[in-house]
Amino acid sequence: MIFQAILILGGTGLVFAIFIAVANKKFKVWEDPRIDVVAAMLPQANCGACGLPGCRAFAERAVEGTMEPAGCPVSNTDQIHSIAAFLGIEAGNAAKRVARLLCAGSTDVAKQRAEYRGLSTCAAATPVAGGGKGCAWGCLGLGDCAVSCDFDALHMSATGLPVVDVEKCTSCGDCVDACPKGLFVIQPLDHNLLVQCKNLVTGDSVLEACQVACTACGKCVLDAAEGLISVASGVAVIEYDLIADAEERAIERCPTGAIVWLQGAQFARLPALSSAEAA
Amino acid sequence: MAFFGFAHGVHPPEEKELTSGLPIRRMPFPDELVLPLRQHAGKPATLCVKVGDKVERGDPIGLADGFMSVPIHASAAGTVTAIDWWPHPDGTMAQAVHIAVDKYAPQVPRPRLVPRWEGLTVDEVVKAVQSAGVVGLGGAAFPTHVKLAPPKDFTVHTLIVNGAECEPYLTSDHRTMVEYPERVHFGCRIMMHTLGVKKAVIGVEKNKPDAIAALERTKPKDLDITIMPLTVKYPQGAEKMLIQSVTGVEVPSGKLPVSVGVVVQNVGSLAAVAEVFDTGLPLIERIVTVTGHGLRRPANLIVPVGTKLKDLLTYCDGITADAAEVIIGGPMMGLSQANLEAPVIKGTTGVVVLASHETRGETVYPCIHCGRCLDACPVFLNPSWLGDLARVKRYDDMAEFHLADCMLCGSCSYVCPSNIPLSQLFQASKVMLRRAQQAGAA
After folding, report:
1. What is the DSSP code (8-state) at residue A250?
2. Is residue A40 predicted with pLDDT exceeding 60?
3. Which domain holds residue B193?
């Protein structure tokens, strides 16, 4: 009796084992072994900042040769070069891109029109009378972007504006999605000229709400190269196709400082939140 | 007729006695009116005046942009002084037309043709209602003419008139029914004619016996209009709850009321339609309840659309030192105001000034899973679970748990012993979900 059971079970096992062995040979998909190696060299953040669905997809494309190793914005130069050396290809030179905030209305220059009491997130405050800020377009400073950042690259300053750490920023775009006011844009780090304002009100009345708002006076338009800056529906707009023509002269006559000449990080002047306050 | 009612709901303090006995009075014209071009659900009106133009009372300043839109009319004679961005009651900035009111103008509207509804086809009535700029005056400001022209593949058998006014504090519909019951019935007659229905039911909460009596007294003999007293319960006046109370039929999730053969209109909208076919005037003023324990002299006022809150509150002798919050609409669903420069618009049912002792405690405690929000939710959602999902930003999962059925009535927030602002979480989640869906579609 017991031998019968052993035979049946053992026989079934053998049949399936043969089936699996055949299937393994027959349906084997050959995969470039370098993909696993390259994937392991990548940061494994799966942030999607390169535009591909995760680090493995990036590794596949890199091995294929359709993506330069420098296309990974999270890896530092050493990591990129080691990947390039491993694959024996050029590292490439994708421009470093970072998130930029289109608002400079920190609490010391922008008026609060009301006291907001409720859930302390920007997404919740926006439907409640647009939040307490005097400017309806401006940053509410409740830090949804800082929460959304996976790379510890966004910190709220003591004056209620998020400051992007350009070293750590990977331009993944999570802050762009998190901001209910749509104030973040992803831009190459070497784009020096930026209008840090989205307020569409024209004229000096806007200064009641915020001292650093764009009044749409048009002085920067005159001072910049032809066609680089224009004033459209109450705010200065930069034509980034012509950014190569940008000169620092364009911002000199701005009465409010809404347009800025950036070298590296935004808001260098803002005091950072001390670690005690952050905790 | 049997009374069906709806399950769940809450009983907030009514606080209607502040204004329910006060007759409607007319507010004098302010010095300046601000008329946003977006005062209704649907597409904003397109501007048709320029700075410096003289306008008479009732002249259009914005034209309807397509079928899902209504025009905006000047609510007083004066001069257009500016067209710029101005605070809107919903908290954003919106394009608005400023009119400096002519102090010595007689404020008599231009000679006009009053349409005779008996001789008009359905399309002509719909067109007349649209060009008069009539929107739902219950708060959502959905264009009334759209509801008068339901899709052809639905048959409408009943017109339900919403006189429930379940929001605490507000009495504008109550006073309309008490003082202008004929106008409500006349509006009802026009709507029944246009929709081709034989039956109308006016639902009124039982806490307004004088309104029920006035409507019964003036009821036309030749029409099948029933005045149905309803249980006093929030949110009795929500469209789907009202349909359930009146007909016993539940509107399926995600469907419009017309799918069960009914159309719901607010009593204020009926009176506005009656006004159009009575005087030929467009919707340029509305009845607003200005009330609250933070206000010196509560009142029911006929207010020109575009009056700034500042002027309105000043006319009511201003706010007390104890005032803490100004809300447009009722305290349950209304919008907190951050700027008293914002104007009264067509959808403004009331302005409530809460005193500091009426605003809620700020400390939010953890959820104790008592389940009171489940017993309160009129559409049988699980607010506790949805709140947990909202906090971890799982908006897609919230959609699966029928976030779309939430009408933000605030019953869950009202009963929560831990002060969790559930309704606010859902509002924010709805916004984020819509953004994600738009990003996905683009």
Report:
1. G
2. yes
3. 133-279
Tell me how many domains chain B contains: 2
User: Computed from CA positions of residues A137, A142, A148, A151, in that sequence, does the dihedral angle turn out positive or negative?
Assistant: positive
Cβ pair A128:B90 closer than 8 A: no
Which of B182, B165, B227, B224 has its CA nearest to residue B202?
B227
Share of chain A above pLDDT 70, in %: 95
The C-alpha of B282 sits at a distance from chain A's nearest C-alpha, in angstroms, of: 29
Instruction: Give the whole-angstrom CA distance, residue A193 versus residue A169.
Output: 19
Residues of chain A with CATH 3.30.70.20: 97-266
B259 and B378 part of one domain = no
* Residues of chain B contacting A118 with CB distance shorter than 8 Å: 421, 424
Please give the angle made by the CA atoms of B130, B132 and B136, to the nearest 5 degrees: 70
Nearest C-alpha of chain B: how many angstroms from A213? 15
Candidate ranges A31-40, A243-252, B112-121; pick with highest mean pLDDT: A31-40
Domain boundary among B253, B279, B305: B279
* Domain spanning A33-87, CATH class: mainly alpha
Chosen domain end from B279, B304, B337: B279
pLDDT, tens digit (0-9, with 9 covering 90-100), for A120-163 = 888 888 888 778 888 888 999 898 999 988 888 888 888 888 98
Interface test with B, best of A115, A116, A119, A177 (most B CBs within 10 A): A119
User: A49 or A4: whose pLDDT is higher?
Assistant: A4
Mutation site for B-interface testing, chosen from A117, A144, A210 by largest number of B Cβ within 10 Å: A117
pLDDT over 70 for what percent of chain B?
Answer: 98
93-152 of B, contacting A, C-beta below 8 A:
93
Determine the Cα–Cα distance for residues B187 and B184; give it in Å rounded to an integer: 5
Average pLDDT of B156-170? Answer: 92
Q: Tell me which chain B residues have a C-beta less than 8 angstroms from the C-beta of A137.
A: 93
Q: What is the ipTM of this complex?
A: 0.73
Residue B294 domain-assigned?
A: no
Residue B4 · residue B247 · CB < 8 Å = yes
Asked if the A97-266 domain carries CATH number 3.10.180.10, the reply is: no
A138 Cβ under 8 Å from any chain B Cβ: no
Question: What average pLDDT does chain B have?
Answer: 90
Residue B274 and residue B151 in one domain: yes
Is the pLDDT reported for residue A38 higher than 50? Answer: yes
Q: Answer yes or no: is B242 within a domain.
A: yes
Token pair of B12 as six digits: 């907030």
